[in-house]
Amino acid sequence: MHLDGTRNVETRDGNMPVFFSRPDNVSVTSSVILYMDVFGPREELFDFCRRFAANGYLALLPSLFYRRDRESYPPANAKGEPVDSAAFAAGRETTIAMSAADTGALIEAAKAGVFGASATGFGSIGYCMGGRHALSALASYPSDILAGLSLHGGQLVKDEGPSPHELIAALDRPFHFAFAEDDRTCPPEHQALIEREAAKAGPHVTIAHHAAAHGWSFPTRWSFDEAVSEANWQMALEMFATHLPRTAPL
Question: How deeply is 189 buried, as exposed, middle or buried, from its count of CB atoms within 10 A (0-12, 13-18, 19+)?
């Protein structure tokens, strides 16, 4: 059994809504922070949280667009369907520095038991846009976030300003990049650059290439690939089971 809810976490920029799902029989547990794609919080992401909760984790989904007038957008669910330009703007303008600050506030709230169980040890996982935020979270809080994944992460390489890929070489915790074969947001040249940076970090930074489209994780989208999605679910669960502390029952 698991319990769901939403809490506001105070950040330096205001109150950030956080959806959570947690086992109902634990007082202390490890936690997984899920970083949303550009369409924002919605039921299928809540279901991802519930699956992590069913495996014993306090799952947290921060609403990264809380600084804006709108926090979610309808997904493009057909191949070739245009994405709302406002969603792209929201993703572009929500920087990894912003999400890193948000993550710090979220970690402290989770440790303090705001979500009904005290968290000890975190994992990060990001989907599409969220991949770069999951990477930034682990790079920013290596004492708390112990492992992470980027699934079909986009815009990991930027030409202007700080680029997320610049964080990779200094990583000292396990992190996994799962790339899509058909991905305009992370083209082959970006994937090659990330591979070079991963080699500098060492064997704890791993990479996989999948013959699937960007967005393979989402069951409601045209790009969903059940086999690839399930393989990455199992990898995430194994990674977190290996590197995050075990839970303590009530």
Answer: exposed
Which H or E run contains 108?
Answer: helix 96-111
Instruction: Give all strands (DSSP E) within 24-117, no chain letters.
Output: 26-35, 58-62
Give the residues across from 150 on adjacent strands. 126, 177
Averaged pLDDT of the chain: 94
* Main-chain phi, psi angles of 139, to 5 degrees: -65, -30
Token pair 């205001």 in the structure block, residue: 14
User: Which residue segments constitute the domains of the chain, with CATH numbers given?
Assistant: 2-249 (3.40.50.1820)
What pTM was estimated for this model as a whole?
A: 0.96
Q: Which helix (H) or strand (E) covers residue 176, if one does?
A: strand 175-182
Pairing of strands 175-182, 205-213: parallel
Nearest to 103 by CA among 12, 176, 228, 172: 12
pLDDT in tens, 125-176: 999 999 999 999 999 999 999 999 999 999 999 988 789 999 999 999 999 9
For residue range 66-86, list pLDDT tens digits in order: 999 999 998 877 787 888 899
Q: How far apart are CA 119 and CA 27, in angstroms?
A: 9
pLDDT per residue as tens digits for the range 108-132: 999 999 999 999 999 999 999 999 9
Pairing status of strand 14-23 against strand 2-11: antiparallel
